Amino acid sequence: MAEDASSEAKLGRLEQYCADFYDRGLIRRAMKGLKLYANMAGNKNYERRLKEKINIEVNAKVEEKQNQLKFLEAMVRELEEKYRIELRKKAILKSQCDQAYLRGVT
Predict the structure, then answer these.
(1) DSSP helix, strand, coil percent of the chain (3-state; round to 5)
(2) DSSP state of 97
(3) Percent of all residues in the chain with a pLDDT value above 90, rounded to a whole number
(4) pTM of full prediction above 0.85
């Protein structure tokens, strides 16, 4: 009887040990999965924040360059207009000089 009781107790302890071991394994796997998920989620959040920051910076640079381009195009148009005006003035002066020369010759 004592032998049966001690073997049953030993068997109970072994079963309890196996159950605890299995539970610890489940907890360990669950924690590992949670850590991996948290790490991936954290990386995705970081990646999303980084993408947003980069997009904001790129959009700002693009807008700045577009504004510079518009300014330079306006400046070129203005200079072309001034150049046309100067050419007209030059043509008028040349024709006046030619007329004055022809008047003086005759």
Answers:
(1) 100, 0, 0
(2) H
(3) 56
(4) no
